[in-house]
Amino acid sequence: MRTTAPRTFLGFVWLAAIALLLAGCSQNPPSGLASTTSSNARVAHLASPISPSAGVYATALEAGIAGAEAKTGYRYANPVPKDTSKPVLIGDDVYGNTDTSAGLDAAAVRLGVDFDGTVTCYSYVYYEPGGWHYTTSASCELQPRSPWPKYTVQVTAGSSCANVRRAPGLSAKVVTCLNSGTAVLIDSVFPEYVDGHIWWSVNNQQGWMANDLLIT
After folding, report:
1. Residues 67, 124 contacting (CB under 8 angstroms)
2. Are 68 and 76 in contact (CB under 8 A)?
3. Is 176 helix (H, G, I), strand (E, B) or coil?
4. pLDDT in the model for residue 79
5. Where are the beta strands (DSSP E) in 114-173?
6. Cα–Cα distance between 155 and 84 in angstroms, integer?
7. Fewer Cβ within 10 Å of end Cβ, the chain: N or C?
8. pLDDT mean over 186-198
């Protein structure tokens, strides 16, 4: 089933909890189209294909909830409890094609933190035969209503740029290489899981990038 724009999350402001949740996070740079690098730049190599998380889940939403719980230590609640003295994760927004027969097999799950409508958690999930898994790159940040966080390129030490490919997959042609720290726009195209990596269409369909090389 294809889902569209996420709904606004509701909650109450709890500044102390926000400070704890967001401690150590750096400010996001503005989004924008990225420039290419010189031909002698060191290209980032992808890590090994994603290792399935300990849990195997029946749906993308369940996997995403587990990823956000692992990231925050908060529990998921549906319906929202009347006692809001403790923060909980809420929501059910799934962006992607969760019909595994379609061959895309990847999605992003967007959840809110109940005590505050400005904190949003994103989990990245993928399907392999047997069930759905979450990746360890779940993130939570101060971003209330935008369907996507702001992403930048992050490459490993010794590399300065990351490949953008014509199609999702390690064998697809490289169309450009983006500097580490470059802001990247995520397109309104469903992610795909290919060659052990989740891939995103970026920069107005300039190409596809592996989720491993993008951070919020």
Report:
1. yes
2. yes
3. strand
4. 83
5. 116-128, 131-134, 139-142, 151-153, 161-165
6. 40
7. N
8. 91
Give the integer Cα–Cα distance in Å for 147 and 151. Answer: 12
**Residue 201 corresponds to which tokens in the numbers above?**
């269409």
Cα angle 10, 147, 14; round to 5:
35
Count of Cβ atoms closer than 10 Å to residue 7 Cβ: 11
Q: What strand order describes the sheet that includes 174-179? A: 174-179, 161-165, 207-210, 197-202, 192-194
**Predicted confidence band of residue 58 (pLDDT cuts 50, 70, 90):** very high
Can you tell me the distance from the alpha carbon of 105 to that of 96, in angstroms, rounded to the nearest whole number? 8
Whether the ω angle into residue 79 lies within 30 degrees of 0, i.e. cis, is: yes
Other CB atoms within 10 Å distance of the CB of residue 68? 28
Query: pLDDT tens digits, residue range 63-103?
Result: 999 999 988 888 999 887 777 677 889 999 999 878 877 77
Nearest to 138 by CA among 146, 149, 127: 149
Task: Say yes or no to pLDDT of 62 above 90.
Answer: yes
Say if CB 47 and CB 154 are below 8 A apart. Answer: no
- Tokens of residue 93, six digits: 């927004």
Task: Give the Cα separation of 9 and 5 in Å (integer).
Answer: 12
